[in-house]
Amino acid sequence: MPVTRASVVLAILAVSSVLAVVQAQRPRPAPGRRAFSVVEATIPDMQAAMKEGRVTSRELVRQYLARIAMYEHTLHAALAISAEALNEADQRDRERAQGRVRGPLHGIPVALKDNIQTTSMPTTGGALAFERFVPRDEATLARNLREAGAVIIAKTGMTELANWVAGDPTPMPTNYNAVGGFGFNPYDPRRDPRDSSFDGRPALATGGSSSGIGTAASFWAANVGTETSGSILSPSNQNMLAGIKPTVGRISRYGVIPITADQDTPGPMARTVTDGNAGQARIPGKHGATPTTYATVIVVVPDEPGALGRLLRDVGDAGVNMEDLHLEHGVGQPFGLAELSVLPAAVEPLVAALSSLGWPVHD
Length: 363
Fold this sequence. Notes:
By secondary structure, the protein is of the alpha+beta class. A 7-stranded mixed sheet has the order 1-2-4-3-7-9-8, with helices on both faces. Helices cover 29% and strands 16% of the residues. The longest helix is centred in the N-terminal third of the chain and has 19 residues.
């Protein structure tokens, strides 16, 4: 069962209460071997330490959970913590002991922006409407990270729904969401004391809409953000990280809450360029790049309760993955137009399927 923001405080207290016991029971490093610390450690540092037997993936997760327990209440870096992280780390350790190392991310704890679907934790986009929503399917990039051996330890904070729900004259504050509140920059986690902005926001901006807080604070080794226009580069700059915005379409966006198909892309945020490249090389779509050219199918939707839901179910039943949807209501008309963005190869079967169900369709 995932740990949501609603129970993060209780989880922190529970973790804190057992840390002293765990610390006392933890084996001492062998003579001549230095104890390993995750603080500001790079991915190559961790891989070298695991290869030398100085640390295990489980110990990396344990150290990161300890830091989350100590500092999360100050920084608000996470919206959910995985209850499966230690089990996943144990599995990676067993594979390593058997001589199977999947690659540079094997056993490395990472986090995902909370608009990227995971089946082990909720995917909220920072919106209260989705606070306990656990998707049926995992994003392609999340699945690819797991297959590369990474341990997904948490979902990061973000600007609610990637800053696409509020504008002038009352724009959404950067890195604020209704589920977790404001995120705080680990280089200065104070609240802004000025009267003009005394609403709880941080004194030192964190950037947005992705969050680099947890990576900068050594809550995990690296994280995956998403960018439409600056949402990887901005928080990386504000938190002294190396952010990489890949070419749009190189990394699959299946299972990522969208804004626009023309600009959206996931990408890594890490302590170093080497760390970021380790992630970027292993999260593209399994069957190649995601196309950025889409066809539009226009469907006439009656202006009545449940009509759009029926359309979405019928599209799903047709086996078509929809990249985007735009609903336009006709002025003074008892209907609306749903513009469905799909891959060109899906147009003909989708039109045939919807037409057979009585939907007026234009392509």
